[in-house]
Specification:
It is a single chain. By secondary structure, the protein is α/β, with parallel strands linked by helices. The chain has a domain of about 220 residues: Rossmann fold (3-Layer(aba) Sandwich). The chain is about 35% helix and about 15% strand. A seven-stranded parallel β-sheet has the order 3-2-1-4-5-6-11, with helices on both faces. A two-stranded parallel sheet has the order 7-10. Helix 1 links the parallel strand 1 and strand 2. Helix 1 crosses helix 6 and helix 5 crosses helix 9. The longest helix has 22 residues. The N and C termini lie far apart (about 40 Å). Bound molecules: nicotinamide-adenine-dinucleotide and uridine-5'-diphosphate (UDP). Nicotinamide-adenine-dinucleotide (NAD) binds next to helix 1, helix 3 and strand 5.
Length: about 300
């Protein structure tokens, strides 16, 4: 049994990670400022003797004795990270410094939840970990993209300069239960709209692509990366290589929900990446991992979740 800190533990990914770690018998400290996370995501854990909930903002230093730290704290949906871009940047950069200083002090292993956004609007396709990306440093997505890139730099420098045991994972678009219905990301938006028979809103012409990974696959990959030898730092891509256009996702969700919704087209936000697909060769090699949940299966379970939630 290990003591594990999960920052951002009340969010979408964090709540699934806390649940898995608790089920494995570890002692979990869930830290969150509840900006986009909610206690509802972790109600089933509250009261368990091996679960602690701490309300804290990682832009401020924090002290605790743990063996491992997963740093997930950061809003991930464009509407939420663009709400207060300066705060988003502070969360990525100051949050990384505070948790890396903590890891250094207590000799904990620490994982950074980085993102496929570090590849920006990629020119190389699919994206492997050697690709440095194509990111606009001054656009509306930059607070998130550059904040995450800076956090990766900090992780590598704490590793090289101070010997902190780090892991960097680059997460590609992930969906599943515990996403907020008003989260603004594409899968949650489309399912909520389809269930309510309101217009399904495509930004641009829908030809842009994403590769969608179901939450259970990601959580399995994350814990496998954490268990790797200290000599492995990453970065390592975690995502599902099956790539779909946004238009095809909209049509599929309308079919699966038997919805009467119409598809409407709205302006494409600035700097919206045109394509994204992970090369997961490294994950196959190092952690013997590849996603097992395919899109229809994942969408069905998410549709069921939102049906129950909105009833
Ligand atoms: P989320 O918004 O549901 O979760 C983020 C959590 O962090 C929330 O609980 C929020 O309240 C908390 N938080 C935000 N700022 C904080 C701060 N300053 N101090 C403490 N807590 C804070 O998002 P998610 O989808 O669960 O994403 C989790 C992590 O994974 C994020 O770091 C995100 O960048 C990364 N990621 C997610 C995806 C995805 O597709 N979901 C893709 C790439 C990377
Ligand atoms: N998108 C869309 N309609 C929506 C929400 C998103 O067409 O209601 C598009 C968005 O413009 C982007 C893609 O879907 O091209 C994925 O968006 P999301 O915010 O989920 O993830 P990200 O852009 O960060 O990969």
């Amino acid at each position: 049994m290990r003591r594990i800190l999960v920052s951002g533990g009340a969010g979408f990914i964090g709540s699934h990670l806390c649940t898995k770690l608790i089920n494995e018998g570890h002692h979990v400290v869930c830290l969150d400022n509840f900006f986009t996370g909610t206690k509802n995501n972790i109600t089933h854990l509250i009261g368990k003797s091996n679960f602690e909930l701490v309300e804290h903002d990682i832009t401020n230093p924090f002290f605790i004795e743990v063996d491992e730290i997963y740093n997930l704290a950061c809003p991930a949906s464009p509407i939420h990270y663009q709400y207060d871009p300066i705060k988003t940047m502070k969360t990525s950069v100051m949050g990384a410094i505070n948790l890396l200083d903590l890891a250094l002090k207590i000799n904990a292993k620490i994982m950074q939840a980085s993102t496929s956004e570090v590849y920006g609007d990629p020119i190389v396709h699919p994206q492997n970990e050697q690709y440095w990306g194509n990111v606009n440093p001054i656009g509306i997505r930059s607070c998130y993209d550059e904040g995450k890139r800076c956090a990766e730099t900090l992780f590598m420098d704490y590793y090289r300069e101070k010997g902190v045991r780090i892991k960097i994972i680059r997460i590609f678009n992930t969906y599943g239960p515990n996403m907020l219905p008003n989260d603004g990301r594409v899968v949650s938006n489309f399912i909520v709209q389809a269930l309510q028979n309101t217009d399904v809103t495509i930004y641009g012409d829908g030809s842009q692509t994403r590769s969608f990974q179901y939450i259970d696959d990601l959580i399995e990959g994350m814990t496998r990366v954490m268990a790797t030898d200290d000599s492995f730092t990453g970065p390592i891509n975690l995502g599902n290589p099956n790539e779909f256009s946004i238009l095809s996702i909209a049509k599929r969700i309308i079919e699966l929900t038997n919805s009467k919704s119409n598809i409407i087209f709205k302006p494409l936000p600035n700097d919206d990446p045109q394509q994204r697909q992970p090369d997961i060769s490294l994950a196959k090699d190092v952690i013997n991992w590849s996603p097992v949940v395919q899109l229809d299966e994942g969408l069905r379970s998410m549709i069921q979740y939102f049906k129950e939630k909105t009833n």
